[in-house]
């Protein structure tokens, strides 16, 4: 074959480099207000007149005829099954017609064909947020617009449909308005329920392709309080043979594919007496996430400056946590005199050095499920790094300051724009 | 804090390195005959007397009362939905009781709670194999034991239960015995159906944890013939912003998490006129897989030696394809005088150089879905690499030799141990 077998194609090589991110940007642009309209026509990026948008105002209501009793305080599951509230919201999507009217209906099983895309190709993503019964009697959700925006990012990344995040937020509020008063009653202040918006590819087709049918659903469940493990959270660093996420991957998206593959290492770490994996990245062992939570350390630099340090978002390895963002904002606003807030890459060796030199002050994991959870120990390659975590692991001072400020906002002790009050029907 | 904060733990750091692979080996060992018995007690690795194994001899039969018509030749879907046969097999598993008796029953929807593990955490894996109606009238499956062994590897990797692969094989044969005669009739020799064993985590619990309940199911479907795209298969190399699999990941396992995240780049490549992505790995751009198939090139070395080259399995980046293994074995056995068979890492630059120097002779993708599919073009960073692929892209000589040998084995023109004959009831 002659050298001419290698031909310069019509376009430059530049646009070959970012196939995925340009596809993501293209799809996200469909939801920009500048388009004049949002669109459900996710698969081809072209707004079509007969393709319907996700529209919360079209929500239909079918109330349960078999209301269940709410569980006793602290009970979150029955025989290992998560307890959910009476209702859920579902909304079906197809590439051809866009979004059907969302339906509020009794919580119950989904019917999926055995060929459904989600069961084979992990075309699925989700969000997690909590609703809090305040000490003032009001029901609040915490910065839900953040979760709804991230849900769109995740959905597009995993080839599921796009939608206007505000519509998802309205649906979440609508479901809480119906189930909140009963399941998170006013006589149980200081408690929460966990909301799980989920999107799955439902097309009944075995080919490896973006599903042409999907379903969004929202459920409300009970969840254990996990922010106070006795003695603090104990982490085991990730093994060499398990990488959670990687540059060029999808670590920033809340897609199922980030979770299932990590369960095995987590299970093994638990069998060895640890709570979660501290995920390291790259040959230098950069600290990224703790379990499925963001991870923070507080240390003193060698110059004696106190810093709150967490991994940056720019290489998209880690989830842009809503709690993470809130922790950083509060620390900058309220601890500016005491602590410098730093988002940068840092390695497990730096953490070990700080510990060995007596400069490691605190550590915690942050996320919706684990809230702000003190870390008391990191096990790395045969060594244990002990970290001060207060009495019985309840948290050292900076951790507790941040945690208490967030508690006050969530439960209405502090009036704050992050706490969105849910209107309740009765 | 004193340096003593860094404590040597009871065990050495060595065992921290291979948390995942040691957990996998541990779980796989449960199914070794040396244990005396296989076990369904996957989650703790201890064989328990009351935990039942997967046992094909317990299969129950419930036949459909609404048999459907078989599709016309070449029809594989209706309105984008894959056509399946009349029946499926399901088997439920729980950590507590192990495997329930498998059931053959009418093909139909599955009922899953919205909280089911598979819908959130991608706790899912699958296999794909075909059954062929031979020109001698017999029904054959191709090396099914390979798929069943790989299914076990995948299941364990994604924290789903273990089982004896032979039992899965028996269930596949049992389903084909029932649906084969009708859906792949003797008057349609030279055709195939596609079998999809699938395992999903069904526990209705939202925590990020290995599911304590799961379901195995087997369905039989129709699938397009994909091994003869007009003009040959055209590949677009993977962008910098999308890595399919990575060392320390799970590229070798047939888990959903390998597929969903790749759909976006594939969709974008298709929009640009290509069939599949050629997945490159690492900063040197090693060629790994083409779409979800293995990838081969035939080139001449600068010394003039003809080689059939494909990526190695040892770093577990790629799927150990059954077709791949068969291609390599046939080439070694039947083309030894003509072609050297080489499993090694090779880069897109080497392929471009071979092309530019007139040494690139052939290329093909191999897999169950795409069989042996000639590749006629690779687009990389603005350049097109043209590859001889025979008249109309039907395949160059070596590709066609291998393909025809495999066709002969699958459709019974050659009696060969790889073609397992399925007993048929009528």
Automatic annotation (TrEMBL), chains A, B:
Positions where N6-(pyridoxal phosphate)lysine occurs in the chain: 254
| GO BP annotations listed | L-leucine biosynthetic process; L-valine biosynthetic process
What EC number is given for this enzyme?
Answer: 2.6.1.42
Keyword list, A-Z: Amino-acid biosynthesis, Aminotransferase, Branched-chain amino acid biosynthesis, Pyridoxal phosphate, Transferase
GO-annotated cellular components: mitochondrion
The protein's matches in Pfam families, at most eight in alphabetical order, are given as:
Aminotran_4
Q: What is this protein called?
A: Branched-chain-amino-acid aminotransferase
Task: Please tell me the species this chain comes from.
Answer: Xylaria flabelliformis
């Amino acid at each position: 074959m002659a050298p001419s077998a290698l031909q310069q194609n019509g376009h430059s090589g530049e646009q070959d480099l970012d196939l995925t991110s340009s596809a993501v940007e293209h799809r996200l642009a469909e939801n920009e207000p500048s388009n004049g309209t949002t669109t459900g026509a996710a698969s081809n990026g072209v707004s079509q007149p007969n393709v319907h948008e996700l529209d919360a105002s079209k929500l239909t209501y079918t109330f349960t005829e078999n209301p269940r009793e709410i569980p006793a305080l602290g009970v979150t599951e029955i025989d290992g099954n998560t307890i959910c509230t009476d209702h859920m919201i579902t909304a079906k999507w197809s590439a051809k017609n866009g979004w059907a009217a969302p339906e509020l209906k009794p919580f119950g099983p989904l019917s999926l064909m055995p060929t459904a895309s989600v069961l084979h190709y992990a075309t699925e993503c989700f969000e997690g947020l909590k609703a809090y019964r305040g000490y003032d009697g009001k029901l609040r959700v915490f910065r839900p617009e953040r979760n709804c925006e991230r849900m769109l990012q995740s959905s597009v990344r995993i080839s599921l449909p796009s939608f206007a995040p505000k519509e998802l937020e309205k649906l979440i509020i609508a479901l809480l308005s119906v189930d909140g008063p009963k399941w998170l009653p006013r006589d149980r202040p200081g408690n929460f329920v966990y909301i799980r918006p989920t999107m799955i590819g439902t097309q009944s087709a075995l080919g490896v392709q973006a599903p042409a049918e999907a379903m969004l659903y929202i459920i409300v469940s009970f969840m254990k309080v996990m922010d106070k493990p006795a003695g603090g959270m104990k982490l085991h660093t990730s093994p060499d043979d398990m990488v959670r996420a990687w540059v060029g991957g999808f670590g920033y998206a809340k897609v199922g594919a980030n979770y299932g593959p990590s369960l095995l290492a987590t299970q093994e770490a638990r069998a060895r007496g640890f709570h979660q994996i501290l995920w390291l990245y790259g040959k230098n062992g950069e600290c990224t996430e703790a379990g499925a939570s963001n991870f923070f350390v507080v240390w003193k630099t060698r110059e004696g400056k106190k810093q709150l340090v967490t991994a940056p978002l720019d290489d998209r390895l880690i989830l842009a946590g809503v709690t993470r963002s809130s922790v950083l904002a509060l620390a900058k606003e309220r601890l500016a005199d005491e602590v410098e807030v730093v988002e940068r890459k840092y390695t497990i060796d730096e953490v070990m050095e700080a510990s060995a030199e007596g400069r490691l002050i605190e550590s915690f994991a942050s996320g919706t499920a684990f809230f702000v959870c003190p870390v008391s120990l990191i096990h790395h390659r045969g060594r244990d790094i002990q970290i001060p975590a207060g009495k019985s692991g309840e948290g050292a001072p900076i951790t507790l300051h941040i945690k208490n400020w967030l508690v006050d906002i969530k439960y209405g002790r502090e009036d704050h724009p992050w706490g969105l009050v849910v209107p309740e029907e009765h």
